[in-house]
# Entry
Amino acid sequence: MSEAGSSEVEKKRPPPVKVLSGQLRAAGNRGPSSGEGCVLRLAGGRSLPVSLVWMQGTVMEVQLHADSVLLMDETGTFTVQGVGSVPRGKPCLSPGKYVMVMGVIQAVSPEPVIRAVKMADLSELAALHRRMWKLEVEDLQHVLA
# Structure
């Protein structure tokens, strides 16, 4: 019965939103009564509620004892927790790798903290991914808001 209940919750969760760490840092919390996540403030006074995010960044520090990794994108750093239990996450855990992480927002301030659901190593084409990332983020947020 609990499996059916959790799958219903997952079906209701919106798809991940591509974000930059600086956007999460500046976001407003939804508050304890509305559940996890935050509200991004976008250009033109628009806002976008977010709980599941897709982020990219360079691995700065790996803390295996804490099951976390510190990543940096062009707007700052963010922490990803639960990396040891993510399928294919371990190959991503080396300083200097450029990775994608999909996860649930745990905190936005003072530094964004994400609980990982999926990770992938994008290092092979890192230069291309880095150049395109901000444009991908802006494009998706424009469509969603």
In short: Confidence is low (pLDDT under 50) at residues 31-35. Helices lie at 2-12, 21-26, 126-144.
